[in-house]
Design a protein that fits this description.
Elements (H helix, E strand, L loop, with lengths): L1 E2 L11 H14 L9 H20 L8 E4 L2 H12 L4 E6 L4 H12 L3 E6 L9 H7 L4 E5 L13 H10 L4 E4 L18 E5 L11 E5 L37 H17 L1 H19 L5 E3 L11 E6 L4 H12 L1 E2 L8 H7 L8 E4 L6 H17 L2
Parallel strand pairs: 1-11, 3-4, 3-5, 5-6, 6-7
Antiparallel strand pairs: 2-8, 7-8, 9-10, 10-12
Amino acid sequence: MIFLDNAAGSYPKPQQVVQAMGRALEDYGANPGRGGYELSLRASRAVYQAREKAAEFFGCPNPERLIFTSGATESLNIALFGYLKKGDHVIYSGMEHNALWRPLMRLVELGTITATCVKADRYGYVHISDFQAAIRPQTALICCLHASNVTGCVQPLGQLGIIAASHKIPLLTDVAQSAGLLPISVADGHIALLAFAGHKGLYGPSGIGGLYVDEKIELQPLIYGGTGSNSDQWQQPDYYPDRLESGTANFAGIIGLSTALDFVNECGIDSLFARADSLCNRFIEGAGNIKGITLYLPRWQCRRLPVVSLNIKGLDSAEAAAALDEEYGIAVRSGLHCSPLAHKSIGTESLGGALRFSFGCFNTENQVERVLLSLRSLADAQK
């Protein structure tokens, strides 16, 4: 199989990640933070070390303010429902994933907040001046993902962070796509809330991610329950990470993420990006020469991730994906990719979405050539 759906979740996982998760279940197996015996204490130390490692990776000044979640979706829900209050106004980009758009629209539906969407251009890029113009006295939060899972376009997060900071408005960003491919620093980027997932460019397992919360931000918990601390009180602890981490931690997932961060650090973000980007560029060059294929890419050189969406004239994207899988053993994603806003921006919403190819460090040049041959066969069959 040729796997080109790394934007949904990288595959395969590094062997050291797989082995580390197995050892976590065999050698620890205890509930971290819930017992005074050695097994539980050892698990607690491993979780703390993973938290420190993740905080360092994202340039977070205080590891205790980085909480572990099931992924970017839970992180974004915690941030939105925990921070926003009645009468607040929110600005968000026209490229957001449903992980942010759906909870945000739920708050609008409830009458809690109002929201303004900053439209993207037809290539998926937003413009800083549009965010600036959308700011109101009631604006309590600015939301902008770092990179799109549909087109790979990278937004000017650094500039946006400066604008947000100058107006004393917190910036919430979703780095699920960019983490592991682009350098990210909470401190340097003026980021107040950062949501990440472990199973994509970080090469970790699914079901693990995190949320960083700036010390100036106070969130109401989304979930209440046991934390292993202040157990004699009904109130949720007021200190981090306990305040936002109720229930038994995904210990094996945390260990897998910790080991995956080691893998990314050892390989180097720049190196991982360069490899995937080189393969993606070769794919773009080849696919662009196939008659009947429409690539959704800017004509100029813009910052982007190794993600490409396209359509084949006369062939629905779902049918194309099924044919690539069944006839050629190629795994890609079709449809709206849980990002209808992005498809509306680039003009593919009415087409039912697009066919997406996303590259990772385990793909090869030979695979790219085989995929291009397969695409040419599908396109030629439509003539």
